[in-house]
Amino acid sequence: GCSACYQIRCTDPKLCNKSGATIVVADFTQNNQTDFVVSRSTFSSLAIANKGPRLLKSGIIDIEYKRVPCEYKGQNMVVKVDQSSQYPYYLAVQFLYQGGQTEIVNVDVAQVGTSEWHYMTRNHGAVWDIEKPPGGALQFRFVVTSGYDGKWLWAKKSVLPSDWKSGGVYDTGIQISDVARDICNACDDNDSAWAESP
Hints:
- The structure is a single chain.
- This protein is mainly beta.
- The chain folds into two domains: 4-68, no CATH class; 77-174, Sandwich (Immunoglobulin-like), CATH 2.60.40.
- Helix content is 7%, strand content 34%.
- The chain is built from two helices and twelve strands; from the N terminus they run E-E-H-H-E-E-E-E-E-E-E-E-E-E.
- The strands form two sheets. Strands 10-9-6-7-8-5-4-11 form an eight-stranded antiparallel β-sheet, with no helix packed on it. The protein has a four-stranded antiparallel β-sheet with strand order 2-1-3-12.
- A hairpin with a 6-residue loop joins strand 6 (103-111) and strand 7.
- The relative contact order is 0.19.
- This is Expansin-like protein.
- Belongs to the expansin family.
- Residues 89-172 form the Expansin-like CBD domain.
- Pfam families: Expansin_C (PF01357).
């Protein structure tokens, strides 16, 4: 679920509004629990007017959630070189501003100007890595899914320069807006689309 967007709302009608808040999942745990840890301001935004302090005081609340498309108007997806990267021996990357309602399920990297693609492995969460990455300027291609369908996308230009740096952020030139098709067309129009956290 990393980089996925969710709309969350709390289930106490005496304290909480019906619209909730939209969040981006930034990390995950190794267990099967469904917990959303959010900032203080996001937590407060779940409340009815003037009930924010009371909601904050409760600390942990029951919520409902549903997956929604991520929207980054006018923003291309970018590659962030993870801090664990060690130029030129080890490359780990994250993809930020991944729009739509998609999952990246495959990432390949190649030196610009070659057709020799190298498979990257999902290390953890949204981090993909490769030991002994190709030299020179690098380009990426991805398989993204929305629902059951997958498609290849690729950055046709150089994304990482030949002297990429740990912590660097580089534009892919790609915008993703695909949305998963739901079997239940009316799901978004009623409360049946919401799942409750345990």
